């Protein structure tokens, strides 16, 4: 028995749409000899099966045991070829690659003139779409052919190709350095979250400035600018400069609208840019623009003009629902957002083979926050427990940290304080271990720890004291991140005033000038 969730062939077959399965059978049937082939029989079996049982495949006589591995590899390759030929998976990039392959074949046949003609057209398309890596490959092949296909203009042609190769190489090196910096900063953000003190701030800033390559603005094309904005965005997130996050995420989105054809060619980057723009608007609490932008975003990606595939569907699910929840958090309309929970859980189930633990846990945390805002603390604890008990979650230690702190508060609110002492010790040990014990967390844990020694008539005064203590950290450059995960101040105010936390947040929302 093979683990069907990990077997590449089984997962690939199950990921195919009806049209892709039909396309595959048409592709296989192009030659009559294939209609009874073993790999087609294996495909039909896997298509109808709920699990991958290799013993059953052998028992049905589809293939002998010794041949199964080779047959699976052959079928996998044939499916990929079929998908590559499908119009759904064709784009400018694949079309240029195809032309480059055709030109290479013609070159090997000694048909130099025909090869150069195709390469010239492909290079023009590549440059127009800023596919500089492919353009560089094309120029390199042109150089090889020109050394064998001698023309009267060989001197000027040699100079032309040399200059062209040099410019493309410079662009590709710059793009590579910017993309490397962007990726490294993104990885750092996922691993450790925001900077925690001046030392970390200075280290990240020094790293960013040293790794940021020198450039001339007029040398930057679409891709270079895109990676530059990304690098600045991740840096801004890490140092908690949320206005700069908004600035660079907006530049990221705007450059796509300045070059509309790039949306279809790079839909993933378009989706991510919009997500971070929406996230930035949430962080600066601009709820009006957040609602407007989310509506525009949804309209754009649901239109017939926007590309459709499985990967984009997963990203759409993540980004739309994350930001829909954020709107309810800003407005305090937690009850109105409860309908999203069932849709999110359905999406997690639908995309379970494509969603990683990190993104699922972020959604669970937000669902927990939604229930906390509704006053349904037991449901809140249920979703936070999924995060706390997740042993494979290596990223976003800050998410693990605040899940534990919010769980403590939820247990207190739910009256489930009989295990509070044990949880306090476990949470404290966890925070010490990850070296992430901030002032806000210290004060929260100290407050909860001392609750058992406080008389009922003193509780309101203790809430007021904690509120005054935490208020000083609301705009602190490093401590303010605690309030991004849990609106502790609003929770304290709700206990002080004796009204639901949702009402406190709604009132604050009305006072915002946005």
For the structure shown, list the relevant keywords.
26 helices; mainly alpha; 514 residues
Concise synopsis of the structure shown:
With 514 residues, this protein is mainly α.
Describe the model:
With 514 residues, this protein is mainly α. 73% of the residues lie in helices and 0% in strands. Helix 8 packs antiparallel against helix 9 (154-192) and helix 23 (459-471) packs antiparallel against helix 25 (488-497). The radius of gyration is 28 Å and the shape is globular. It starts with 7 loop residues before the first helix and ends with a helix.
Mean pLDDT: 85
* Alpha-carbon distance between the two ends: 59 Å
Number of DSSP-assigned strands: 0
Overall, the morphology is globular
Number of continuous helical runs: 26
What is the multimeric organization of the chains shown? single chain
Biggest beta sheet summary = none
Rg from C-alpha positions?
28 Å
Task: Give, in order, the helices and strands.
Answer: HHHHHHHHHHHHHHHHHHHHHHHHHH
Q: In which range does the helix fraction lie?
A: over 70%
The proportion of residues in beta strands is: under 5%
Low confidence ranges: none
Structural class estimated from helices and strands:
mainly alpha
